[in-house]
Specification:
Length: about 200
């Protein structure tokens, strides 16, 4: 099952609800390591290398991890399949090229995209310094961590969310979010009757 995509994320973060907390750890520039290597950022860098084989200007603009079985995980380090969107942009109004990359069983699959990724800003994800493992620690410290289907890394075009973030899909249209700059942890989803852009039941420690 493909990692849940951008429009779903966009709708989910437009109607945030639940709990918001901030970690006291201010070491946002340090990757949390799993068995000596970053769980997510290492995969992003390797995907970037693959994308640049398609075009030297290619960059990874969206990333995600999942289990190929479609089951839930209780730690992002347990993912066995990773998906990425890459675009090559030379500054012109239209992108030069765009690809979907998947890493599974130590093998890469690269497929041209028919349509460009929607509702995200095309930032170079190799510039991100918070690993998904560190985002997971933030959720644990906030008391929000729970089993999830996928994790995703992106920067939304939504004006209320100026920073890149990790999103963990926990099912039922709900996500756990971690802002990689402010280190805020949020539980969000589609809340019936709540206007887009509003949040209810928000707390911080």
């Amino acid at each position: 099952m493909k990692v849940s995509r951008l429009i779903t994320i966009f709708l989910a973060i437009s109607c945030l609800f639940g709990v918001v907390a901030c970690s006291d750890n201010d070491n946002g520039d340090d990757d949390v390591l799993d068995n000596g290597a970053p769980v997510g950022l290492d995969k992003v860098r390797r995907a970037d290398e693959q994308a640049k084989l398609q075009h030297p200007l290619a960059k990874i603009v969206w990333a995600g991890g999942r289990l190929a079985s479609g089951a839930k995980m209780d730690d992002p380090a347990h993912a066995d399949t990773w998906d990425f969107d890459a675009i090559a942009d030379d500054g012109s109004p239209q992108v030069v090229g765009m690809w979907e990359l998947t890493l599974r069983n130590a093998e890469w699959e690269v497929t041209p995209l028919e349509w460009p990724p929607m509702e995200i800003e095309y930032i170079d994800l190799t510039t991100i310094t918070m690993d998904v493992s560190e985002a997971w620690v933030v959720l644990q410290q906030a008391g929000l961590a729970q089993p999830f289907f996928t994790w995703e890394l992106l920067k939304s075009l939504h004006p209320d969310y100026p920073n890149p973030f990790y999103a963990f899909h926990i099912g039922g249209g709900q996500y756990l979010f971690v802002d990689i700059v402010t280190r805020s942890a949020m539980l969000g989803g589609d809340a019936p009757g709540v206007p887009a852009g509003n949040a209810v039941g928000m707390y911080s420690n």
